[in-house]
Amino acid sequence: MTPFLEALGTRPLFLDGAMGTMLQSRGLGPGALPELWNLSHPDVLRDIHRAYLDAGADILLANTFGANRCKLGAAADQAGALIAAGVALAKEAAGEHAWVGLDVGSTGKLLRPYGDLSFENAYDAFAEMIDAGAAAGADLIVIETMSDLYETKAALLAAKEHCSLPVIVSLTFDETGKLLTGADIPAAAAVVEGLGADVIGLNCGLGPQQMRALLPLLRDACSLPVAVSANAGLPVVVDGRTCFNVAPEEFAGECRALIEGGAVLVGGCCGTTPEHIAAMTAACRMLPVLPPEQHKRTIAASYTHTVELGGAPLIIGERLNPTGKAALKEALRSGDLDYLCREAIAQADNGAHILDVNVGLPEIDEPQMLCDAVQAIQAVCDLPLQLDTSDPEALERALRVYNGRPLINSVNGGAESMAAVFPLAKKYGAAVVALTLDEHGIPETAAGRIAIAERILATAKTYGLSEQDLIVDALAMTVSTGADNANVALETLDHVRHTLHMNTVLGVSNISFGLPRREKLNAAFFLLAMGRGLSAGIVNPGDAAMMDAYRAYCALTGWDSRCQAYIGYCSAQAEGISSRVPAAAALTLRQAVLRGLCHEAAEQTKVMLAEHVPLQIIDSELIPALNEVGAGFEAKTVFLPQLLMSADAAKAAFDVLKAHMGRTGTAQASKGRVLLATVKGDVHDIGKNIVKTLLENYGFDVLDLGKDVAPEAIVEAVTEQRITLVGLSALMTTTVPYMEQTIRLLRTAAPDCRVMVGGAVLTSAYARQIGADFYGKDAMSTVRYAGEVFRD
Amino acid sequence: MTAIPEAEALRYLGAPPDAPEVLKSQVREVCAMMERQITPRSLWRAFSCTVEGASVSFGGVVWESADLARHLKGCASLLLFAATLGQESERMARREQLRSMTRGAAVHAAGAAMIEQFCDECQEKLAAEYEPQGLYLRPRYSPGYGDLSLGCQRDVFRLLELPRHLGLRLNDDCMMTPGKSVTAVIGISMEQRKSFRRCLTCGRTSCPFRKEES
Asked: For the segment B127-155, what is each residue's pLDDT rounded down to a tens digit?
């Protein structure tokens, strides 16, 4: 029969209808695994496939939806056999009249960082399915009913890397056009299209009417053919049983409208039957199909939304780059990902649209660190990221684990660079920053840089990339060493943007290197560049002069409708100033900490540093203030949130001191190292985090293993890092046994290590019973105990 | 939009009755952010049920629990109910904790207040649907309450297909992700009782969150 991709787009193609609904009507019990029937009830499957074929379906989906090792549980080792049998049954029915799709559904697990399944394990589970399905002779891969974009990426990547079959990726959105994990339609489409799916689709969750409303959004978001498999209406629940009420004729009419709206494949999901499919194929068979819309866009996507270059200029935050930043270098060396996350959050707050992430330091494992950094930042910040590395291994590993569709920084006109970067850009659908330099260096003229841009574009095209996949960096070089440097950059970017029709980017602040009052030059150059066609500036969003220039430019050039962003920007600044407590100068540091005022505590610390050394400030102001709050907390005159506010204020002061000590090359001696973890099974970590904050304030070094930590992992960290005090937290009675098990293992592996425990269900008697050395009834008592332990 | 009751958020946070304004304004800010950025979702299904001795059966499952049986006495049917603040609430908790411990704790407290409020709102709507039929709803009762095993969560997840419909996940120890999620049984009976929102039916009389007003 004709290959699927040849038929695609020439006429309406028809997917089959519900499998689960049919199996249940034939006696599959609730909660039973449908795939087991491929071996136990092959005749039922034959009947169902035959019925859908007779109804006119062009694609029969094998009964393999949940045949992955995560979902099959005890039957995991049968996955291959179930898939082989499922595909064989569908092929038997299909003969030469229909294509057989390997049906690939969710693992049913939540991926890290919120769940416990790693991206790699999800990928492996899907890869097993794809291998088995391709070996069994499936004609195409149908990844469907996906509601998590990250899991979808794992499945699609596995399909692309484990077979050469066509791939349909079908997603389940709610009525507002969002996946359960938050992605909007453009973000989901960007990822699916970027990774090379052949068809994108909508299925499940909604009836055909609701799908019709989403269809134009999906067509507008990508250039792929679209498939739609709606439920037979919205579910109605009658005595615990779900029913769908759209009858076959009505369903067929709706499918007609879907094809007229641009769907090229239609089928049915929950509640549809061979009758629905028969009515649908009869009503739609003769309809013409619309070609997909063709979009040329330069897009970056996170797991929630997209950002498009080429409209209003964009801000790419540059702060996550260790060059010239001692504190970030130190954070990278010590693996302090929280520091990176805080920088990311601050840049997002300050108005960045995209964040550049560069973790390159000679002494660290860059591939691993870039992956860790990307995952940590994505757990707290929903901006698209620009992966900034010159190490191809780091780039590819980060491209894999990134949730969304990132940008790459960068490629240059050198043959080696292009050969390394372009295949990755193509495979992962990532647009690339193209530096206008090559093996011979940076051309001094605009003509030289433009020539390189043209060469990069020509080479990119040989890899299947095009104009919209490149963002040309015209290279800002400091005007202190060449009077024409700004002009050359501006001329280059003007030409690239308006003649070559590609997007442009600049590391704006390089223009002022070596000169005084750099912010003045930077802001002026940024304005000039935006005026000449700069698509995105790589800048520090915390730099007020830069952001002033940016907001003003957008307001003045019509990119800021009714100047709303400008007005919002100005009022946020005014609010930031007025919300501070007046006459802050009158407060001492100690008072600021007692009242829990972070800004005032930091400011007062700076004032004090003019006359005192850090240790004096800690001993005479901070520690007494913390002690006073702590004592009040124990006497129940100070409540938990006040204790936290004081801890935050003290931390703000410590941060100022740390930065000062970093500059002067001194360091505060640690009072001791404490390991903290929420035990296996338990996902509640707020209590543990409160303890961590207080311990750090009191000068202890905390190794935080996080939540849901296996006993073995705790023991390993303790022995490897020679930890002498461990704090374990558990909220639920059901997880306290893991606490006990952890303590038991620690007693054998590290007999000198002390263990303190805390959590809602614990008491001192219970703590003794499970063998703990100390029961911390609250955060302050653990601080006191840690003090005793390390005094000994 | 679910409006978060600020007083509840402060109470979950453990704030004193005369909380300082700096604290209240932080909590207010967090509440406003959550109301803006979080869309709670819910799901329920009705089942007929049989309550016999210390066991409750419905939808093909039998739960052994004297406390639940007592709670559902006189109910011929029940609603299996679930609600969640969604993954955004998890992300927000992490993010705000990085800003400051106070904001992190405030997100947890406001999240607890928000999910409770949302459940109450859902239940009020459901009650209004049932009342014209002469049917009344009992207070929500969740796995883990009294002698009802937390393991019953597995049945709830299966019967409501929560991973698929609400994006919820259950780990091997029956903990839910996102953390700010609720599953519960709501009894339906012909007997009209006091409002389901009151705490008076709960056996834990020493609970610091108990509301004594009638």
From this structure: 999 999 999 999 999 999 999 999 999 99
Q: Which domains does chain B have, with CATH numbers?
A: 6-189 (3.40.109.40)
CA distance, residue B63 to nearest chain A CA (Å) = 17
- Give the strand order in the sheet containing A701-704: A701-704, A673-678, A725-729, A754-758, A774-775
Q: Does B208 touch chain A (CB under 8 A)?
A: no
Q: Which helix (H) or strand (E) holds B137?
A: strand B136-137
With CA atoms as reference, the chain B residue closest to A377 would be B95
- Look at B17 and A679; give whichever has higher pLDDT: A679
Q: Name the residue among A756, A761, A763, A751 with its Cα closest to residue A779.
A: A756
**β partners of residue A387:** A357, A408
Same domain, A246 and A262: yes
* Least CB–CB distance from A345: residue in B80, B88, B95: B95
| Closest residue in A to B93 (Cα–Cα) | A380
CATH number at residue A422: 3.20.20.20
Q: Which residues, numbered 114 to 143 in chain A, qualify as contacts with chain B under a Cβ-Cβ cut-off of 8 Å?
A: 114-116
Round to whole Å and give the CA distance between A773 and A768: 7
CATH of the domain at A747: 3.40.50.280
Is residue A159 in some structural domain?
A: yes
The end-to-end CA distance of chain A, in Å, is 81
Do A236 and A345 sit in the same domain of this protein?
no
CB contact, 8 Å: A565 with chain B?
A: no
Contacting B residues, span 91-130, partner chain A, CB-CB under 8 Å: 91, 93-95, 97-102, 104-106, 108
What average pLDDT does this structure show over A765-781?
Answer: 92
User: What confidence score (pLDDT) does residue A393 get?
Assistant: 97
- Using a CB-CB distance cutoff of 8 angstroms, which residues of chain B are in contact with residue A647? 101
Q: Which residue has the higher pLDDT, A451 or B19?
A: A451
Indicate whether A659 pLDDT > 90.
no
Give the separation between CA A254 and CA A259, rounded to whole angstroms. Answer: 9
Test mutation, B47, B87, B157, B161, chain A, max A CBs within 10 A? B87
Could you tell me if A768 and A709 lie in one domain?
yes
Residues 324-343 of chain A with CB under 8 A from chain B are 338, 341-342
Residue A234, φ and ψ in degrees, nearest 5: -80, 145
Q: Is the pLDDT of residue A95 over 90?
A: yes
Asked whether A678 and A688 are in contact (CB, 8 A), the reply is: yes
Residue A24 structural domain? 4-284
Domain boundary among A577, A601, A635: A577
| A174 → chain B, closest CA residue | B165
Residues A243-298 have pLDDT tens digits of: 888 999 999 999 999 999 999 999 999 999 999 999 999 999 999 999 999 999 99
Minimal C-alpha gap between B40 and chain A (Å): 11
Asked whether the ipTM of the predicted complex exceeds the cut of 0.85, the reply is yes
d(Cα A650, Cα A617) in Å, to the nearest integer?
A: 11
Mean pLDDT of B55-61: 94
Q: What average pLDDT does range A683-708 have in this prediction? A: 90
Pair A551, A560: CB distance under 8 Å: yes
Task: Tell me which chain A residue has its CA closest to the CA of residue B150.
Answer: A734
Percent of chain A with pLDDT over 70: 98
Whether residues A441 and A363 share a domain: the answer is: yes
Find which of B37, B88, B175 to mutate to test the A interface (most A CBs within 10 Å of its CB). B175
Number of domains in chain A: 4
- Both A217 and A366 in one domain: the answer is no
CATH of the domain at A40: 3.20.20.330
Which residues neighbour A683 within 8 Å (Cβ) at sequence distance 6 or greater?
A707, A708, B171, B175, B177, B179
pLDDT band, residue A584 (cuts 50/70/90): very low
Contact A640/B105, CB-based, under 8 Å? yes
